[in-house]
Amino acid sequence: MISFKQLPLEAKAAVAAGVIFFSMMLSRSYLAEQLELRTRRWLLRLQMALFANALMLIGSLHVWRSTVTTFSRSSAASSFCFMPWKIAVFMFLALAHSSFFTLLFLVAEEPYFFSLAAYTCLGAYIILIFFLFTLGSVEQAYKFLAGRGTKAVTGNKNSRTAMKPVLAVMLTVVLTVVGLLNASRPPTVNSVEVPVHKLPSTMNNLKVVLLSDIHLGPTVGKTKLAMIVRMVKALKPDITVIVGDLTDSEAEIIRPAVEPLGELNSPLGTYFVTGNHEYYTSDVSNWFELLKSFNIRPLHNENVKIVSPKSTDDWFCLAGVDDIEADVLRYSGHGMDLKKALRDCSSERAIVLLAHQPIAAKWALQERPDINLILSGHTHGGQMFPLNAGAYFLNPFFVGLYKVGQNTFVYVSPGTMYFGIPMRLGSRAEITEIILRSP
Q1: Molecular function (GO) terms listed (predicted)?
Q2: How many domains does the chain have?
Q3: Are strands 188-195 and 430-437 parallel, antiparallel or unpaired?
């Protein structure tokens, strides 16, 4: 029987990831109610950081062998450039691994340079892993299809082996620069007209500005939020809604960065629902109080009547549900409760629901098909290549406007900023201007 010491490094990393994952499930199931809130918050974040790093270690070993070990066996190892290259690869991997720990130690009003560098390396790491795997798969497929014919060109084996990591690194550098430049631009303003069944005629052309996935934390701070607020105010919305993942940190730590939200002054109100990242902070109650101090109303499985400025008899129901991650984390007093959220929302009136995750939108429509419009986020439009494909297949609604049945629409925001990695590839940050049309 093989002992743990005899296992290859990749297998040891996989075992470590499994142990950490098991401890996460144990903490969620049996320790959630017994631990102090602050302790639970730190334990959850530490476990998530260690789990991600254990999984990344498998990829990092592959990166090291592909970009360093491969060349150490060739004449390139004697070059004066090899040692600086070796150090650069090591620093790159170290920064990528450290990115998850910045949530614990490096969150302030504005991002630290170290956090930006670490998360940039994480984004480049993901791209590099993808290209190394893809090019390696293509190489193996070529060898398989070529069969014995490959023996005729064995003299070029070393050059072909070196070409794969060189090409992967070049593609990674190019896409990283493109992704950084794309994410550094202000969000685009996307105007969408949505016909809302049973919307009163006096509320025709009502303007709702949708924000989602701002992710205040290690790489998004006060300056970017202030820019978003200025753009929203310029649109002069009747209502502003924030559909989750506003933050990745505790309210007390990042309070100064949130102050620009106090400038939002939509006449019919500004509303907020939780996303999964709010529950990762384990600080939802404090966030609710902070948002209320800025005149932003959290919809905690509840609803409000949005009354027409032209007639008090005309109104529609705006409801919001807690994010479904609250149930997974067993977050006390929270969890998606559609019946509670839609209490007193009659099907005789238009119903607009705020639900962070598209899967929650799907569940809501299965239970209440009379909902007219659901506004969601969460997917980021995949945020960056090659994660786009995974986000597309994991969500029932990916990004943009969807029509469900005869009188229901779902709009999924691609996110107003980004999570951690300051890059966008194959997606664009967006502030959505939704114009409600009466039939």
Answers
A1: hydrolase activity
A2: 2
A3: parallel
